[in-house]
Amino acid sequence: MEHAERRSENVALANFVNLSSAFPTLSAQIDVSILSSTKSFEAIFDTSSSSWAWAHDLSMACRLAAGKGELASPLNYGEILPESVFNVMHTIKTQHTVCPSARQVVYDLGSGSGRALFAACLSHPFAEAHGIEFLPALHANALQNLEIWRRKEVETNAPPLTEFFFECADIARINKLDPNPTLLLCHATLFDDDLFACVQIIAENCDVGTTFTMVTKALGTGLDTGIETLGSQQCKMTWGETTVFTQRRV
């Protein structure tokens, strides 16, 4: 029984090599594609409710250790669910023509456990994926998840498609990302005004054509910022539902 389950997981993960192609256009096919991506994700990571609760508790312990209050801190932990990432990636690839080739770069500001970044890379074969997380415990968890990801690649003989880089750093000290991202993800739900202003500066310093996926809070737009909004959609999070904005540097 265990062998059969392992074989099933390996087959599911091996499928992620094929998930980089454009999503089908028929709604029924889209549902199947997203379901396939979700199953591949579940074959790699624990997606039980207890795993999300554990990550939240880990974040809280790290904040308290750093002297951050639970309600006062903009670093409260919550993640976008993988199926929501797949839906967003489908939207930006088909409606906004983002990610036309494989040799591109994705960033996640406030990357937490890294699982949103891994989900994005199941949807598209980015050349590089960069996660920047301030809390050391969550950064360490992202490195653990990277080891799980790599181990699954070895078990299934799947060719590595993306090179991952996780950094424990304060985005408030970053003005420009290098290399420049093709796609920038940011779960900004509980970012305070000061921290979100830092995200705005980073976005404005990105190259023309960079796409931003902003959870809950949209970047400032207009001629002075060089950013436009392409659209928005409702997405499920570990804690409920929120709006995800797709924006672009112009």
Tell me the number of structural domains.
1
Instruction: State the helicity in percent bands.
Output: 40-55%
Number of DSSP helices? 7
Would you identify the CATH H-level superfamily? Vaccinia Virus protein VP39
| Whole-number mean pLDDT | 81
Q: Determine and state the CATH class.
A: Alpha Beta
Protein name: Histone H3-K79 methyltransferase
InterPro entries: SAM-dependent_MTases_sf
Topology (SSEs and partners):
Blueprint: H1 2-14, H2 27-44, H3 49-65, H4 82-94, E1 105-109, H5 115-123, E2 128-133, H6 136-156, E3 163-168, E4 183-187, H7 193-204, E5 211-215, E6 227-236, E7 241-249
Parallel strand pairs: 1-2, 1-4, 2-3, 4-5
Antiparallel strand pairs: 5-7, 6-7
Helix pairs in contact: 1-2, 1-6, 2-4, 2-5, 4-5
Q: In words, what does this structure look like?
A:
41% of the residues are buried. It is built from seven helices and seven strands. The protein has a seven-stranded mixed β-sheet with strand order 3-2-1-4-5-7-6. The longest helix is centred in the middle third of the chain and has 21 residues. The termini are far apart.
Sum up the structure in keywords:
250 residues; disordered N terminus; globular; alpha/beta; 41% helix; 7-stranded mixed β-sheet; Rossmann fold
